[in-house]
């Protein structure tokens, strides 16, 4: 079997071609709604991105299209998508915003893979930037996390999780499912916020949150 690991796309809905790539703001290459001063050594943000910044959506879409249309070479059986989907504006984003990033990537990936001449299985899980605030999740009450509960239907509607798997995922952000092409295999999606030393909620329960 052959797989692709997809992690940390960090697309930026506010990416702006021509904006300074090195600026006096925490995130550059974007429309921050403020006047940004280009710092020494700066350059304009390119169409496809800049290594100093989060990427524009078109770059991610281009990669997904490449995966879909080059299966003669890639021969991909499955993609493990481990999240960190939103831009790094962690000081002013919201649960709704970071959820929209994951939904957007879900729909983009689905759309691109329709161009593939084979079925590519997707095994998704959220990263530390995909619950809100960043790095933080409360494990004391089932079904209480906004982002996770608004992703369960998105991933179920994409046929990536069954109804039972999505309902388990909604509780605390983890699941297990049979591996479709291996009757003896099981896929386990773990929520690594339970191991994040920046997650202050873990002080309320030092036992395994699962």
* Helical/strand content category: alpha/beta
Beta-strand proportion: 5-15%
Domains, number = 2
Per DSSP, the total helix count is 5
Class of the largest domain in CATH? Alpha Beta
Anisotropy-based shape? flat
Strand arrangement across the biggest beta sheet: 1-2-3
Low-confidence stretches: none
Succession of helices and strands:
EHHEHEHHEE
- The total of beta strands comes to 5
Name the helicity range: 25-40%
Secondary-structure arrangement, i.e. CATH architecture of the largest domain: 4-Layer Sandwich
Q: What radius of gyration results from the CA coordinates?
A: 18 Å
Please describe the biggest sheet, giving its number of strands, its sense, and whether it closes into a barrel.
3 strands, parallel
Mean pLDDT: 93
Gap from first CA to last CA: 30 Å
CATH topology assignment of the largest domain: Purple Acid Phosphatase, chain A, domain 2
Task: Note the topology.
Elements: E1 3-6, H1 57-69, H2 71-74, E2 78-81, H3 95-113, E3 121-124, H4 146-157, H5 163-172, E4 175-178, E5 186-189
Parallel strand pairs: 1-2, 2-3
Antiparallel strand pairs: 4-5
Helix pairs in contact: 1-3, 3-4, 4-5
Give me a quick take on this structure:
The protein is of the alpha/beta class and 210 residues long. It has five helices and five strands.
